[in-house]
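Course assignment 3, question 2. Fill in each field.
Student: A.L.
Task: Predict the tertiary structure for the chain below.
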Amino acid sequence: MPAMSRFRRDVAAAALACSICMLSAPTALASQDPGGGGSIGGGADPASGTSTSGDASDDGTLSAGVIVYDRSKNGSGNSAGPVTSTTSWTPPACWYAPKYSPAGLKTYLEPIWQAESTGSEWDLQQRNKYEDGGKDPGTYKDFNKEKTGKGYWWDSYVNESFPPGWDKCTKPFFWVDKGDPPPADIENAVTPKVLGELAYNEIRVPGTKVTLAPARTTKVNLPTWAWLDGAAFKPVSVTASVPVLGISATTTAEPVSLKIEPGTPDAQVYPSSGVCEIKNGKIGEPYAKGKAHQTPPCGVRYLRSSGDGTYPLKATITWKIHWTGTGGTGANLPDGTFGATQNVTVQEIQAVNH
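Answer field:
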C-alpha cells in the first residue's frame, strides 16, 4: 500500500544511515557478526579503491549496502566513463541481498507497527508472520531470534539512479540460512552471476579522443591518419563481493575495436567499414613522416571542405565484457561501447598560380 511504501522508505533511509556510521570499511563488514542487531552495511576504503554500494558515486564514496566494489583496476581520469550495452540488456535495477539480523529486523519493523500508518489489519498480518508465528510454514517466532548468527533476513536494494525496473523487487523479507542459496524463484537474489551483472554497471573505460595526423586541420582528399594511445586501452575490471556470504565476481572489459564516424557523408573511412580492429594491443597506426599520401590502416579522407565550421568526428570503442565468479562460474555479458566526439576542420587545398 502507498502509506506502507512511503514509510518503509523513510525508515530504511534512517536504518541505512545508521549502518554507515557503525561500519566504516569493508574489513569491518567482513568481520562483523550481524547477529547482534542492525542492518548489514559497510563503508569505503579509498586507499584500496573499495567501497560498499548499490550505486556508489564516482569518487568511491558510498550509499548503503552489503556489496563491496573493488574499483582499483577500473578505468580512471576525467574522460573515463561508463559503457553502454550494445543490446537492450541492462544490469539489474534492483536486487535482493542480506540486510537484517533477527534483532535488526525487529528494530526496523516495530516503529512501522507503532506508527499505525499502515492499518491494524496489515500490522497484525506482519506480526503473525514475523513475531508471533513459528508453527505455520512461512511464519517465524520473534523474528527468527533462535537462528541469530545462523542466517540473515534478505530484502531488496535499489540502484539509486532509479533506472527502469528499479521498483520491480517487491518480495517481502525472507530468511536464508548461512550456506544455503537464496530461493530459486526470487529473481536477482545475489549470486556470483548477479554480482557480475552489477559490476558491469560500475565499469569505467578511458575516453576515446583519437590522435589525428594532420592534427587540428586537414585538407580535402588528404588521408588523415587516426590512432589511439595503446597504453591507455588495456583491460579494466571491477570486482563485486558480498563478504557475509563469501561470494564474488569480477567483471572485465577488453577493448576490441574502434569505430570512426567522420561526421559527414562526404568522406571515405579506412577501412571501408569504419571499424579499426585492435591488433597486438594497437588501435590504428601512428603517422610517420613520408606517409602523407599512403592509405592509413585506420583513418578518414574528407571529400569536401567544412567551410567556416567543422565536422564532428566520433570515435567509439567497443569493449568485450565477461565475468568470472566464485565456484568457477562465469559467462559473457553484452559488449559495451563508449565514444567521444571531436571537431575536425577540413580546408580546400590552395592552388598557387605562377
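Instructor remarks: Residues 1-37, 43-48, 52-64 have pLDDT under 50 and may be disordered. The first strand starts at residue 44 and ends at 45.
Grade: pending
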